[in-house]
Amino acid sequence: MRSMFTRLISVFLIVILVFIMALLTVYYTSSLRQNRTRALNTLKSEGQDLAYLASESRYNPLTMSFEYSSTTNKYIQRKLENLYSKYSSYCIIIDRTGRVLVYIDPSLLNDEEVLSTLNSEELTNTLNRVTAGEEVEFTTNTSGGTMFTVAIPWMQDGRVMGAVVIQTASQVINANFQRTLIPVLIVAFAATALAVVLFSWLARQMTRPLTQMERSANAIAQGNFSIRAQENTGTRETRALAKAFNDMAVQMESLETSRRDFIANVSHELRSPLTSIQGYIQGVQDGTFPEEDQDKYLSVALEETQRLSKLVSGLLNLSRIEREDIPLNCTDFDLNELARRVLITKEGQIDEKKIEVEAELGDGPCLVRADRDQINQVLVNLLDNAIKFTPEEGRISLSTRTERDKAVFRIADSGQGISPEDAPHIFDRFYKADKAHTTGHGTGLGLAICKKIMEKHNEHIELKNSETGAVFEFTLPLAAENRPSEPDQEA
Question: What is the model's pTM?
Answer without folding.
Answer: 0.47
